[in-house]
Amino acid sequence: MPFEASSLKAKSSTSFDQLMQFLEKESTKVEDKKNVVPFSGGNKRKQTSALEENSTRIRNGHMEMPIELSLDSDEELNCSSGDVSNGRIIVDLADLIGSHRFSVQDTLNDSMRNMTIFGRIGLDFSDVATSAPIEGKVFTHEPENRTDVEDCIRRLRSDDEHLTEVNLNNMKRVSKERIHALMKAAQKSTHIEKISLANTAIGDQEAQLLVHLLEHSKSLSAINVESNFISPKMVVRLVKSLLGTQSVVEFKTENQKQSVLGFKCEEDVSRSVESNFSLLRIGIPLQSVHCRNRVANAISRNFEAGWFELIFHTKLKRKND
Asked: Residue 238 class from Cβ within 10 Å (0-12 exposed, 13-18 middle, 19+ buried)?
């Protein structure tokens, strides 16, 4: 017959009281657990776990090695018997944990080959630290630029055929009026080939005169205006001005005050370079990878075209001879 909840009867509180009395009576018959350690006031007593016992044994130096070593070969057996130097063992451990990066490379290589270091065999990483001179290129101070600006202006105005290069690099003390006069005088010269104005503190006003010079001068082939204060928009105008005669082969305008041109200016620069078929070397900081690739492809195209033209003229000259 299935057990139904409706057949249950409520238990009275008397049965619960009888149960409690029985438990109390039985508890008095059971003996208490014997206390092995006598009680002493102030001591904290608790049951210790297996982990705490292991940590106590480790601190006391009685912990057994939890890792089993299997020595199969004679070399491993010799290593365990102490035939290998302590330096080699330390180097092997350093290789495992990656701390060999903090040691001197020459010393580490010698220790790996068990070579004699400082008169001793092996290595214990306790050698005396020594310093070695750094072998590098010594940069000497460039001599002061002593170009006579007034003489250059005079010779440019007179279209001197022997004046093909004007170098005013690092001449910040030259006034802007003299640079303006130099630009205007260069427009009258038909023999000038290279103008260098790097680190002369020129700005957009001087660059505007240079734009007019690049648009009309057919003899100019190299321009250097690095390390100045030319704005990105003026840099774009300078590159566009190279399309006037397309005689400039080298153009440098890096390290300006505003190092980043911007995406729009870089697009204009790359478009102008693609339309230029004479430019072989250009120095302009371009951040966009797409623009850099376009400029690089245009420069490579010009190099190849110049090489083919040189081969053609060489063969034509040999044929005429």
From this structure: buried
- Domain membership of residue 15 (yes or no) is no
Put simply, whether the predicted model's pTM sits higher than 0.85 gets the answer no
H helices, E strands: number in the chain:
11, 7
User: Does the residue 239 lie in any domain?
Assistant: yes
Rounded-to-integer distance, Cα 231 and Cα 11, Å: 99
CB 156 within 8 A of CB 180: no
Helix residue ranges per DSSP H, 248-288? 263-274
Q: Mind listing the pLDDT tens digit for each residue in 209-249? A: 999 999 999 999 999 999 999 999 999 999 999 998 889 99
CB 172 within 8 A of CB 206: no
Does residue 222 fall inside a structural domain? yes
Question: What is the C-alpha to C-alpha distance for residues 308 and 302, in angstroms, rounded to an integer?
Answer: 10
Q: Looking at the structure, tell me whether residues 190 and 280 fall in a common domain.
A: yes
